[in-house]
Amino acid sequence: MQTNDSSLPPRGDRTPAWSELAALQHTRGAGFELQAAFAADPQRAARYTVEAPGLRADLSKQHWDEAIHAQLLALAEQVQLPARRAAQFAGQIANPTEGRPALHMALRAPRGAGGPFEAEVHGVLDRLLAYAEGVRAEADAGVGPGGRPPIRHIVNLGIGGSDLGPQMVVPALRAHSHPGLSLHFAGNVDGHDLLPLLARLKPEETLFIIASKTFTTQETMANARLARAWFLAEGGHDIARHFVATTTNVKAAAEFGITTTFGFWDWVGGRYSLWSAIGLPIALALGEAGFRALLAGAHAMDRHAVEAPLAGNLPTLLGLLDVWLRNFQGCPSRNLAPYHQGLARLPAWLQQLEMESNGKGVDLAGEPLPFATSPVVWGEAGTNGQHAFFQMLHQGTDTVPVEFILVREPATGVERLKPATAAALAPLLAEQQRMLLANGLAQAQALMLGKTAEQALGETVPTAAPDQAPELIARHRRFPGNRPSTLLMLARLDPWHLGALLAMYEHRVFTSATVWGINPFDQWGVELGKSLCNALLPRLGSGDTTGLDGSTAAALDWLRG
Ligand code: F6P
Predict the structure, then answer these.
(1) Of the candidates 417, 395, 362, the residue with the CA atom closest to the CA atom of residue 480
(2) Which end of the chain, N or C, is more open, meaning fewer C-beta atoms within 10 Å of its C-beta?
(3) CA-based angle 356:346:167, to the nearest 5?
(4) Are strands 55-58 and 49-52 parallel, antiparallel or unpaired?
(5) Is 356 considered catalytic here?
(6) How confident is the model over 125-154, as pLDDT tens digits?
(7) Residue 559 has pLDDT above 60, yes or no
(8) What is the pTM of this model?
(9) How many CB atoms lie within 10 A of CB 544?
(10) For ligand 1, atom 10: residue with the closest CA
(11) Angle formed at CA 360 by CA 355 and CA 362, multiple of 5 degrees
(12) Which residues neighbour 179 within 8 Å (Cβ) at sequence distance 6 or greater?
């Protein structure tokens, strides 16, 4: 086994800063009192607020102080984060197990910036955007070529990174989307995903995008075949017009019968690919200007990530905080609470980004890690989550740090209503926006402030059982408080701001991966299940259970009916 490879920077746990942080957790982190920290330092909120392109982050409600903050920055220096990030941007091999760079930043670098692969990137981008504009123009005109119906429905068939990005961005930016185009997403191999959608569509108005980096993924290929069979059975013709592919495997797409293909490259990881041709659904929804604004926001964050000094570098600070929470404070999960309904799929996108990237158990040298890596990332749009799992966040036995996302200006699309209706709804919607923000702020406050049993005892509680002692009820109504949270704030959710937010998450994942000394750009952990599935598939037909373990054999037998 290869260990301590001298060409690699030191792994986080082998640095002096790591030992210092372990000591600081003992002396300061473990008994950290948020309210006392605010009382002792009136500047605390300002001290721990960081501005980055399009984003303002208040990190003051975390269990850290200047000593911890300083050692986390030292940790970043000692694992050579700035040099590692610069190497990634320069196109060096960031994904050594697959021998590839990880250059999704090149997809959003403007023309003329002189970045790697500029000609290829902008060649595909221009073609993709021209195509998207063509489809949008048909919808505007209400007629397609030769008097045929225009495309009205776009169905993206992809899974994982070929689905989650566009599926999250399109609803997030609905207020900026073409009103005459409906975007749909189906990823699951389960026919219950695509079939109900097909039942509502007409072949002549439908465009299928077969989105797959490899063009071999079982689920996507199965859905592509289902869509093609439906299209032909329903009297559709002109597959060339109604099916396009976004893939690195142009040859396989051609074999499927697809002639319009938008390519990308093996240096774009699946979960980092929404900026590439995989973003076609986004380009169709937003148009050229919107898609370019999304890229520009991400590019602004790229520059921040690589240029801002560590102390004011948001993806660096958030990644370091993730390490602090995971490895020193012992938090196994992190909750994401976006207070914007459009961001309802952000937790799902982030789950793949973070857990497929950093859910690793060995370091770059293949050595088993003696510390924890990716937390479980989970969440739900606020305020819905408050009525589901916030009970556990407030009074459960685990400390789960919560990341709130608050958006100052609403974009509900009220301007698309009839003027009289818009005027009637506007004040109500403005009040709902205030309710939304008040709820988000209040939850962060409640997590920090908590409530003592004494405070609870002083309250009138009409719903408390009258035969129970008030002291007992008060113990149930106590909140421990002192629970950490982060506030991420955006002025508005438009393409530029969303691009910046998403790119921030990408660079943040790289930060913690660099501290942990792992490769965030491979995903070997998805392989085993895929190959065992391929072996089981014929057995579900034949019923042959020879050589299977008892549990799988019995279940297979029962499931065959
Ligand atoms: O889940 C594994 C994975 O390889 C992801 O990394 C990827 O985003 C997804 O499958 C889809 O792959 P493809 O785009 O090749 O169909």
Answers:
(1) 395
(2) C
(3) 90
(4) antiparallel
(5) yes
(6) 999 999 999 999 999 999 999 999 999 999
(7) yes
(8) 0.97
(9) 12
(10) 160
(11) 170
(12) 416
Element (H, E) at 403: strand 402-409
Q: How buried is 510 (Cβ within 10 angstroms: 0-12 exposed, 13-18 middle, 19+ buried)?
A: buried
Torsion of CA 162, 165, 167, 170, to 10 degrees: -130
Angle, vertex CA 411, rays to CA 409 and CA 413, nearest 5? 155
Residue 194 φ/ψ, nearest 5 degrees: -80, -40
Quick count: other Cβ atoms within 10 Å of Cβ 79? 26
ipTM value:
0.98
Does the pLDDT of residue 4 top 80, yes or no? no
CATH number at 12-99+308-449+483-516: 3.40.50.10490
CATH of region 109-289: 3.40.50.10490
Exposure letters 455-485 (e unless 16+ CB within 10 A, then b): ebeeeeeeebeeeeeeeebbeebbbebbbbb
Q: How far is the CA of 159 from the centre of ligand 1 (A)?
A: 6
Nearest to 494 by CA among 417, 403, 410: 410
Q: Which residue has the tokens 């019968």?
A: 257
Which two structure tokens, joined as six digits, stand for 297?
Answer: 């926001």
- Mutation probe of ligand 1 site: the residue of 164, 212, 217 with most atoms within 8 A of C-beta: 217
Angle between helices 118-141 and 280-307 (to 10 degrees): 140
User: Within 6 Å (CB) of ligand 1, which residues are found?
Assistant: 159-162, 212-214, 217, 220, 270-271, 356, 523, 526
Cβ atoms of residues 72 and 21 within 8 Å: yes
**∠ Cα 152 156 158 (to 5°):** 175
Please name the amino acid found at residue 294. Answer: L
Question: Of 71, 180, 77, 86, which Cα lies nearest the Cα of 135?
Answer: 180
551, with CB counted inside 10 A (0-12, 13-18, 19+), is exposed
Residue recorded with tokens 């660099």 = 514
Contact (CB, 8 A) for 84 and 518: no
Q: Pull the structure tokens for residue 58.
A: 């208040």
Residue nearest to atom 3 of ligand 1 (CA): 160
Retrieve residue 122's tokens.
Answer: 């902008």
- Residue 479 contacts residue 393 (beta carbons within 8 Å): no
